[in-house]
Fold:
Amino acid sequence: MLPAQLGRAPRHLLVCERGHARHPRSRHAAHVRDHAYSCRVSFLIPECGMLPEVLKSTIADIGEYYLVRNLPLHELVAHEFIDAFVKKGKLILSVDKDTYEELGLQGRPSQYSGKKVMRYIITIDLTDAGFHPESKKHNRVLWALKEKKPLEFDFLLAWYNTGAEGSTLMSYFSKNQIQALKPKITFSTLRDLQCPVLQSNDLQGKPEESCSTEELFEWLGAVLNQVSLDNKSSSFLSTYCCPEPNTVVEKAFLCTITGFIIPEKIIQLLEQLCCYFGEPKLAYWLTLTVHGFADSPVSWRESEHGFHKGGENLYNFVIFRNLDYWLQMAVGAHDDCPP
Structure:
């Protein structure tokens, strides 16, 4: 007999909301900023064979990110680093019980620890007024990370430079093993793609009229993972098929960007996708899907991410021709409900 926990399906959460991209109270950009650590961005445009030049330029301007190997953690709490790169931010550490006790810094038990606490969360506000140079708080954190329990990791770093003069990550970490990386970008054209029929004002869908937001989310997952929608009885991989009602589009354009992509670049891409409907188009809707790092210690804002079981944290915009949108936010097991 299987243990009881193996007989239960994993818990997942999908939160959906509607809005309009040009409404003065729309929070679509705020939701993107709340999800800071993204590793893959994909957009799908039905009835599109070639991207407009402005979208191509936006993709080309997605920016570099950096890999720094064997970086001592205490360098991220040095005030030279904070003054150069951090206007507002926190260092959040997810550590095991032994490391937590050796560091001696104040933290809290992970909310996913169970009865026996084996993991702790330490949050250090780098721009707090009490964390100034030579303060007791700063000196204690620096001593803990530099002398009491020196920690080194490989870091991915990304920085949104608004044009101000100053240090760059490459120059600041020139004494370290730093490498500039460019996101991987792939383009593909999907032929004769079955697409769900959607109505922007109806999240739930109606039989024989339109599909629901959940059906769209499941279908999109199959398309982005190149799962066949044929529902052939001979297939040993998938018998999934497109929900009904649906329509077949001759071609659809799919772009996927993989790397460390910061929210401001995603907002720029989202804005250009909204502008795509500025001229008449055959497409009734398009999608923008963003995946977070599976092993990030947080998902949205500072919500603890249960990365040790599953790791899913993603969101998807469905943008309609009239600039209504659906926002779908999803997490797997051991995560708070998205905001």
